[in-house]
Write a structure and sequence with these properties.
It is built from eleven helices and nine strands. With 280 residues, the protein is α+β, with helices and mostly antiparallel strands. The longest helix has 27 residues.
């Protein structure tokens, strides 16, 4: 990743941007959820969600175990293991992407733990983080690990984590083509092992700033704001008063809305969870 892509941009400190500060820690697949939960068709599908659809059980180490009691064909249509309430943001929502929708997700091989063996991945996770366990319709198991104000998803292969036996986890990275992306996903996931979610001021890359501004634009459109009013929210009224009659600002707002709408209406799959190459 070039230096231009890594340049950090401070998030403006005002009430509007404060409501979106949680976004800066998100991995790409969590950004995908932020766009999907604003999709009108997904919202319509989610209206059929019932609290009784999913069973929930708390087991040792306060691990929460979730399993669907009903068909999740609609969730699979959206690339998810289970339907999730669109009112929940990407930090609170138990969004689990299927292997097919999110091929670059972190994977671990789960094997029996022999007497005297340790497992850094498991032992560190249960001591520092909140773990949630999910099983899909084919029996695949997934873990969402939460900590330090962020989270990441892991797919588990091998011995079931529900087998009731000591296990050891080993990071699994297959395929040279996606190696670098999978390693980066793993590195990003390590943020959950921090200790203070407020230790760093909110910040984002140029790319995530555009993603955030796209979400703000969609939310503004939903409450009926005009393009100029959206520009006021994003840039401030003084800057808009000075630059709105020129071609640059209007074009920027039109592009932002077009791109955000495309992501919301399905583009999130290709750009955010099934990326063929890193996006700038």
């Amino acid at each position: 990743m070039g230096s231009q892509e890594m340049k950090l941009v401070n998030i403006k400190e005002n009430n509007v941007f404060n409501a979106y500060n949680y976004l800066w820690r998100l991995q790409p697949d969590r950004w995908a959820w932020e766009y999907l939960r604003r999709n009108p068709d997904y919202r319509a599908d989610a209206m059929s969600i019932s609290p009784d659809d999913i069973s929930e059980l708390t087991v040792c180490h306060n691990i929460r175990v979730y399993k669907s009691r009903v068909s999740q064909s609609r969730a699979e249509h959206w690339g998810m293991v289970m339907m999730v309430d669109p009112k929940l943001n990407a930090i609170d929502a138990n969004v689990v992407w299927t292997k097919e929708a999110f091929p670059d997700q972190v994977a671990v091989d789960v094997v029996l733990r022999m007497p005297g063996e340790t497992c850094d991945i498991y032992d560190t996770s249960v001591s520092l983080c909140q773990l949630s366990h999910f099983t899909d319709a084919t029996g695949r198991e997934y873990i969402i690990t939460r900590g330090n104000g962020c989270l990441f998803q892991t797919r588990c292969n091998g011995v079931s984590l529900l087998a009731g036996v000591p296990v050891r986890m080993k990071l699994s990275i297959s395929g040279l083509k996606a190696y670098n992306r999978k390693v980066q996903s793993y590195r990003d996931g390590m943020r959950v092992f921090g200790s203070d979610p407020d230790a760093e001021s909110p910040r984002c890359t140029k790319r995530t700033q555009i993603l955030r501004d796209g979400l703000i634009a969609l939310d503004c459109l939903e409450i009926g704001l005009s393009h100029r009013e959206i520009a006021n929210v994003l840039y401030g009224s003084t800057r808009v008063e000075e630059g709105w009659n020129g071609p640059s600002m209007r074009s920027s707002i039109r592009y932002l809305i077009k791109r955000a709408t495309k992501l919301r209406d399905g583009g999130f799959r290709e750009e955010l969870i099934a990326r063929s190459k890193p996006k700038s």
